Amino acid sequence: MKYQNPDISNIIGQMIMVGLHGYTKNDVFSFFESIEGYPIGGVILYDEDITTSPSSLHNIRSPKQLTSFTNSLRKYNNIPLLIAIDQEGGKVNRLKPDYGFPDSKTWAELGKINELIITKENAELTAKTLAHYGINLNFAPVLDLSINPNSFIAQKDRCLSSDPKKVIAHSQEFIKAHLDNNVMTVAKHFPGQGSAIGDTHNSFVDVSKTWSSNELFPYKELINNNSLNAIMISHLFHSELDNTYPATLSKSIIQDLLRNKMGFEGVVISDDPQMKAISDVYNLETVLELMINAGIDIFCFGNNLIYDPNIIKKVHLIVMKLLDEDKISIDDLEKSYFRVLNMKSIINIS
Questions:
Q1: Closest Cα partner for 179 from 114, 226, 243, 113?
Q2: In which domain, by residue range, is 123 found?
Q3: Does residue 141 contact residue 158 with C-beta atoms inside 8 Å?
Q4: Which end of the chain is less crowded, N or C, counting CB atoms within 10 A of the terminal residue's CB?
Q5: Is residue 7 part of a domain?
Q6: Do residues 53 and 9 lie in contact, with contact meaning Cβ atoms separated by under 8 Å?
Q7: Contact 42, 17 (CB under 8 A)
Q8: 3 assigned to some structural domain
Q9: Nearest C-alpha neighbor of 188 from the set 268, 123, 278, 95
Q10: Domain of 262: which CATH number?
């Protein structure tokens, strides 16, 4: 092996976030035993798999169970884990009232009410709930504009408004409430999928004819006022932004547009590489090579579309292979590593 660095496994590990099966302390022990020697930087929790699976595989059953589960997760990593969740509210809501957790309004409902104090109160309840149960990262707010009411994301009540100024104002309240409770937020889905009819979970999605540059405005303003510490990149394709690759694999979109033109210096997270928009077209080695060279800092493998118990080891070995073949640079990996550690320090978990 050409590339040797005693810290390389930790560097690679901080770029990996993964979903795991199970809901008990023993499940956590078994998970970390199975990945010994292959560190990770974070986990993402789900209450169900997208594909049909036994309920025993799910991470969230009750408040008491979740407390025990996240306490166990915190014991098994040298560098503290990001413990992440999608808790947008409403239909994208992993901590459901049925399990004993507080209810919350959808982003669309908050947009219709359009009272910042209501959004603040709703966000504070969400953030305090997450913090109480050991979760320190929320994949929200959604910055997608409600351009097309028939879009996949609007149909799920996940868009706040078609007005970027409203989205900015309510997102600021959401983000501040979370940071006040030491919970990181991740704005999504860059560069904007409010016009997209299709769903990248299931297929390739092209927004070349429907996307508007106005969709960047919430990101620009929130970057300029230092509100954004992390952004999730969508798998959507836009031929005028990159005529070859979808956004998660695109150096033009991530490095040139988001980092250089828009000035974003925080953590860039991929949407799930196991979604069919990516996995049906590219193999894992190609995905990792393109993502790293494009500027992705964290690969978020949800593992709830197709469960791959070996995904962590595969990523480590592939990244080492790419380093040995000079297809990626250690400088890029180290930049990602320090961005992730800096983000963790903001919420006091580094």
A1: 226
A2: 15-346
A3: no
A4: N
A5: no
A6: no
A7: yes
A8: no
A9: 268
A10: 3.20.20.300
Find, among 102, 193, 175, 96, the residue nearest to 139 by Cα: 175
Query: How many structural domains compose the chain?
Result: 1
Tell me the per-residue pLDDT of 262-312, one tens digit each, with 9 for 90 and over. 999 999 999 999 998 899 999 999 999 999 999 999 999 999 888 999 999
Residue 10 lies in a domain: no
| 8 occurs within a structural domain | no
- CA proximity to 69, closest of 28, 129, 130: 28
- Residues 142, 189 contacting (CB under 8 angstroms): yes
Place of tokens 């016009």: 195
* pLDDT tens for each residue of 101-110: 999 999 999 9
Place of tokens 């791959």: 308
Q: What pLDDT digit, counting tens, does each position of 154-177 carry?
A: 888 999 999 999 999 999 999 999
State the CB neighbour count (10 A cutoff) for residue 253: 24
* pLDDT at residue 239, as a whole number: 96
Q: At a CB cut-off of 8 Å and minimum separation 6, what does 22 contact?
A: 28, 30, 31, 56, 57, 59
